[in-house]
Amino acid sequence: MTTVASGALIGFLVGLGLVIIVYRSPRARRIHLADRIDPYLRDTPTPSRLLDDRPRGVPRPGLAAVEALARPLLADAAGRLDRFLGGRAALQRRLTQAGGRTSIEEFRVQQVICAASGALIGAFLLALRALLGVGPPALVSVALIVAGTAGGVVARDYWLSRAISEREDRMLLEFPTIAELLALAVTAGESAIGALERVSRLTHGELGRELRLALADARAGATLVQALEGIAARTALAPLVRFVDGMAVAIERGTPLADILRAQAVDAREAGKRQLLEAGGRKEIAMMIPVVFLVLPTTVIFAFYPALVSFTVIAQ
């Protein structure tokens, strides 16, 4: 490593540190209203843990200080990323479709962590180039830092889409069974709310969780129709939306609910069969790729290679 490169690297690190110090100094940092009134509210009683439904993990002793130091920086970066990307309403809907276990702020923090992880790859290559003189050129390393940062943000968004797709697939698998259980409960004489309560107690999947949320909304003061429409608003599955609409219409107009539930269950079974056939057709086409490009050429080689060797020997 040359003297010029060493001086440039040291100057860059010192300048970056000075910029961070000046930027995060009390005079330059904007003080929020919450920071101003926080010292006067610290003597307030702590709320009950029974009201906090977030999972509580036991932090490791060695990481508690690091987490306390990194939390404000991550929150600030997540806020800036949220203002840059926007679309809070669409993001909230997608998080709700994924199960609603992650808030927007937590998702943005995860995106910041993924972006920093992606940028570290390019930074490592740039440092390797500056210290040892090996690796890609400096311009390529800087481009890799930018690409890694953007790739981390996009990767976290892609994982969210995968989580939504997997959850919807699980709900589609549970839907026919739950529809039949509801039809049996209503046929046996249960009311709509009683059937929902019984089925929600017996099931433990994603759709059962949605039924429990609907019952919680109904107990909180919403009508049963509004609670059922909340299930359709939290999901984007067409069969489930039709099922909820059918139940809502039957409850509002007084039509026989058991017949509608049985018909919906039959439709769900038929839709599951069609999806299974479509998946089988796609897998069959995908299986042709190794057969055509791997198995068939190997078979042709084994079939014609002895004849080719024999012709070569005879020609000599």
UniProtKB/TrEMBL annotation:
It is found in: Cell membrane. GO terms for cellular component: plasma membrane. The chain crosses the membrane at residues 6-23, 112-132, 138-160, 291-315. Keywords: Cell membrane, Membrane, Transmembrane, Transmembrane helix. This is Type II secretion system protein. The lineage of its organism: Bacteria, Bacillati, Actinomycetota, Actinomycetes, Frankiales. The keyword NADP does not apply. Signal peptide: none annotated. Residues 179-302 form the Type II secretion system protein GspF domain. Its main location: membrane. It is a multi-pass membrane protein. The keyword DNA repair does not apply. It comes from the Bacteria.
